[in-house]
Amino acid sequence: MRTKKHFLIPALALIASVMMIESAMAGPPFITDDPEPVDFHDWEFYIASINADSHGDWSGTAPHFELNYGVAPDLQLHMIAPLGYDAPSSSASHYGFADLELGAKYRFLHETNWWPQVGAFPLLETPTGTRELGSGHLTAFLPVWAQKSWGTWTLYGGAGYGINSFSGHGNWEFGGAVLQDQVLTNVLVGIEVYHQTLAQTDFPNEGTGFNIGTVIDLTENHHLLFSVGRSIDGPTSFQCYVAYQFTFDNSLWHFWSSSRHPD
Q1: Among the residues of 9-100, which ranges form H helices?
Q2: CA-to-CA distance for 57 and 209, rounded, in angstroms?
């Protein structure tokens, strides 16, 4: 089973506004994702929180739950179920279920000595949250990601197009890149730079930002992820992501099921 070797994609309409992106989070702990799906029959489960300060207004998830499953070779199914909050400095705060994110990652090119691996990861944000904690309408994000490794170093990134189904809210574009290094056998460190065009007419989320993050493998199955960053020319003065990740395969799932329901 692989451990988490990569770092956060655009997340929920809520997380989107938090991270200046109106699609969903997907390459923890960075916004930019990579093309590598979860291995066939493997699982990834996260308990995570993302938080951001934009001109004194705090918003984020507390927490959100992410589940990824390798349903076939080179194909991963994905879901994020968030509990979100919005705490403006000049009005009432809100907390509750935000927009549910669904997606599927498919890798259609494998990495060679000369070529990167390449994959697509379409995402759909469903309007399950309240108006204060969600977009109130369907949104989609259609990215293509690529990745190449040299020794302990890995470079990945790509770009995508976001689609708003609500009139008056424009579509948007996103691009980003992450450079990371396996500094220790169980520690990855990386830095991300990304840019997004204006996602909607009534929220100033256009701009460029960066994050610095790490993935720490406590054991083969237990991992900690963290990133921190801010806008370079956008509205977010501070943003952070923190998560616990549990990775397992079907053999552990069958063992747990049989222990609960012995013959």
Answers
A1: 13-18
A2: 18
Ranking 39-43, 61-65, 141-145, 203-207 by mean pLDDT, the lowest is: 203-207
Torsion angle of the four alpha carbons 68, 79, 189, 212, in this order, in degrees rounded to the nearest 10: 180
C-alpha distances (whole Å) from 196 to each of 147, 151, 161 are: 20, 31, 10
Q: What is residue 255's three-state secondary structure?
A: helix
Report how far residue 63's alpha carbon sits from residue 125's, in angstroms, rounded to the nearest whole number: 17
Question: How many independent structural domains does the chain possess?
Answer: 1
Rounded to two decimals, the pTM is 0.84
Q: List the CATH number of the domain containing 110.
A: 2.40.160.40
What is the average pLDDT across 140-159?
96
Q: Is residue 1 part of a domain?
A: no
Q: Which domain holds residue 195?
A: 13-260
Cα distance between residue 82 and residue 134, in whole Å? 10
> For residues 38 and 234, what is the distance between their CA atoms, to the nearest angstrom?
33
Residue 40: band (very low, low, confident or very high) from pLDDT cuts 50, 70, 90? very high
**56 or 215: whose pLDDT is higher?**
215
Q: Tell me if 5 is assigned to some domain.
A: no
**Residue 4 resides in a domain:** no
